[in-house]
Amino acid sequence: MDQAHSRALEALQPFIHLTTSSTASSPRFVANIIANATSHPNTYVFAELLETSAVQALGSADTPEEFRGYLKLLEIFAWGTWQEYQETPGLPTLNDQQALKLRLLSLLSLSSTIRPLTYQALMQALSIPTAVKLESLVTTAIYSSLIVARLSPATNPPTVNVTAVAPLRDVRPQTVSTLISILSEWEGRCGDIINGIEAEIAKIKDQTVRNSILKRQCTLALEKAIAADMDGGEDNTGLRSGGRNTKHSLRGGRTAGGIRFGGSSTGGNISNKREYSDDQDDDDDDGYFDNASDGGLDVSGSRMEIDEGAGASRGATRQTKRLLGVGRKT
């Protein structure tokens, strides 16, 4: 669609050069330029030609009446419609190329204003008597890249579905203030939306920072808790280990405390001890055996019991047992 606008501007340039030349002083000459420009098959924009001084001079009181209508005609080609041409008196008669051009330009304007774009509405606005001629006009507009449309003659009512329109119509000067107010309102709405988006972005960033700080605090608290637990575990382990060693020492003292060895080489505890006990004949101990005369172990405060035998009831021979009593009361 932008290419169509570029081609239209390029096609209009020769006519603009003619109106700005020194020979464009005659109203007839300028009117002839307007007639040729509006009949050219590739010209669809006319605002640049309309702004030239030679064309604007046609509206002065000194211009003959037969040429004044060309200024209004060019304005209708720039932003008007076929219906406006039909309702305006005193305008020049159009040739076939001009009539086709004005109907095509009017189709662009009607495509943006009429919904739905029915065959009947277009035929009435463009003064087209039959549906076949209307379809031919729409087909020409499609192949000229003026619109993107699809004909639907089988629908009820038959319609023309236009999806895109080329930007080839000029803006009417009276509507500029209205367009400015519309665009200003649209700009204000866009500004409000942008401010709202920026406020949401600021909130998200602030919440992200808060979440990061909270996460860091939770991580530090967890690390401190783990470190404190590890320190307490080591202290408790030491206490438990010390308690077990103390208990073991106490038990060892109770176990070996009844036997004291005079020699320093024994270390105070007996690693190998033998205990001979006879639960049945413990009361028949008849003496003590002192092993100090042997030059071996020096047993202090200990006594050795010798069992004379199991008695007649057992019917066995006499057995000698040695008992190293630990903490036994005599």
TrEMBL record:
Top-level taxon of the source organism: Eukaryota
Entry keyword Cell inner membrane: no
Keyword ATP-binding: no
Keyword annotations from UniProtKB, A to Z: Signalosome
Compositional bias segments (type: Gly residues): 254-266
SMART domains: PINT (SM00088)
Compositional bias per record (Acidic residues), positions renumbered to this chain: 278-288
Gene Ontology CC, one term: COP9 signalosome
Chain intervals for the UniProt region annotation (Disordered): 231-330
Family: Belongs to the CSN7/EIF3M family. CSN7 subfamily.
PANTHER family reported in the protein's UniProt record: COP9 SIGNALOSOME COMPLEX SUBUNIT 7 (PTHR15350:SF5), COP9 SIGNALOSOME COMPLEX SUBUNIT 7/DENDRITIC CELL PROTEIN GA17 (PTHR15350)
Protein name (Swiss-Prot/TrEMBL): COP9 signalosome subunit 7 (CsnG), putative
High-level lineage: Eukaryota, Fungi, Dikarya, Ascomycota, Pezizomycotina
